[in-house]
Amino acid sequence: MKKALAMILALMMVLSLAACGNGDNPQNSTAGGESKAPVETQNSNEGGEVANKDKPLVWFNRQPSNSSTGELDMDAMNFNKDTYYVGFDANQGAELQGQMILDYITAHIDEIDRNGDGVIGYVLAIGDIGHNDSIARTRGVRKALDTAVEENGAIKSDPVGMNADGSATAVKDGKLTIGGKEYTVRELASQEMKNSAGATWDAATAGNTITTWVSTFGDQIDVVASNNDGMGMAMFNAWSNENKVPTFGYDANSDAVEAIANGYGGTISQHADVQAYLTLRVLRNALDGVDIDTGIGTADDAGNVLSDDVYKYDDSQRSYYALNVAVTADNYKDFLDATVPYAPVSNQLDSTAHPTKNVWLNIYNAADNFLSATYQPLLQKYDDILNLNVEYIGGDGQTEANITNRLGNPSQYDAFAINMVKTDNSASYTSLLEG
């Protein structure tokens, strides 16, 4: 009798430990946020467990695509019926950035040409030559400033290195006529900001590079342009602020918006508040088994809904795109806190109708200013509103393995949100879900 009782007690202890195991999994690390252990949930599908390959998946910020051609990876976009992409309208935003720079030059033409040589010289920090958003922004600046060169129907986006004499083949000298006077516009230098370890969009590299460019070009540099605010602010702080040279970025990071009061030329808000909401909302809808438009174009039971002037959906690409807004000296005070949720979609969901689900989400680079200081704080506010228990994983910005090695047990999650290091590497993640 005693032996039987001992065996029963031992069995109960084993079962108790097994039930508690998920909360202590050492793979659960975060990207600067609160760690949340997975909770017991039942997937919305009736009749038991859902295979990992069938769980909702959202790619965000880096659209699965060929890094050389920009062609979308539709295999990744159609991984399962609940796979989508969330980002922003890169081309619309790129055109806005280019127009913002052109408008600034036009409005300040009397003082913009610092050495009075009739040439408006600019330098350009490129984030990632294989990233569709970076490519679009480079093209947007060159198109607006008339320095674009087309090849096979598309504007070249290659870095030019140094272009002191205007002989680079990826760009040409542009012409602007302002106030009856014609000016030459020249891209003096451009470079991909990649550090020695291979991380792109690298702010420290941009800060060092502007020093090199200044040593070569000096007062020929009249404008500084950047594919994002992280690099833009590094150059602004390292040189252009002190020398009163207008600098333009992208992302509307809080520090960049604040710097507009001190001479930062402007930035572009890609509506991170809308993007972060869409990233988690699409997963919430798939997990609830409701129409994907719920709480997006159609009001949900809490009244959350987006108007069509802040996002668009492309069904052929299975992609949601937030629309962009130029942030300048005229309106920057409206964008000072980039981590405030978008009011029309800030209503708490009822946890009875929308029970808690577990989500695995990664940030490609925990050091990325936009994603870690703006996007993730927004996600962390929306995950509470949408009753999602999100595990945030921060990568090193260099290899997919640094991230995928921490997805050792996908079965403990109900859905996944993935931000790749490189747009070509979707299979690094889907292979783990298919296994």
Could you please describe the fold and organization of this structure?
The chain is α/β, with parallel strands linked by helices and 435 residues long. It has two domains: 25-89 and 271-434, no CATH class; 109-245, Response regulator (Rossmann fold), CATH 3.40.50. Helices cover 31% and strands 19% of the residues. The chain has twelve helices and 17 strands. The strands form four sheets. A seven-stranded mixed beta sheet has the order 12-13-2-1-17-15-16, covered by helices on one side. Strands 3, 6, 7, 8, 9 and 10 form a six-stranded mixed beta sheet that branches. The longest helix has 19 residues, at 2-20. The protein starts with a helix and ends with a helix. Mean pLDDT is 91; it is low at 1-34 and 42-47.
Largest sheet: 7 strands, mixed
Query: Which term fits the overall shape?
Result: elongated
Instruction: Determine the strand fraction and express it as a percent band.
Output: 15-25%
Q: SSE order, as H and E?
A: HEHEHHEHEEEEEHEHEHEHEEEEHEHEH
N-to-C span: 45 Å
Question: In oligomeric terms, what are we looking at?
Answer: single chain
**Helix/strand-derived class?**
alpha/beta
Please compute the radius of gyration using only Cα atoms: 24 Å
Low-pLDDT stretches: 1-34, 42-47
Secondary structure elements and pairings:
Elements: H1 2-20, E1 57-60, H2 74-77, E2 83-88, H3 90-107, H4 109-112, E3 119-126, H5 132-144, E4 150-151, E5 154-155, E6 161-162, E7 174-178, E8 181-192, H6 203-217, E9 221-226, H7 229-240, E10 247-248, H8 254-259, E11 267-269, H9 272-288, E12 311-314, E13 319-322, E14 325-327, E15 357-363, H10 369-385, E16 388-394, H11 401-404, E17 415-418, H12 427-434
Helix pairs in contact: 3-5, 6-7, 9-10
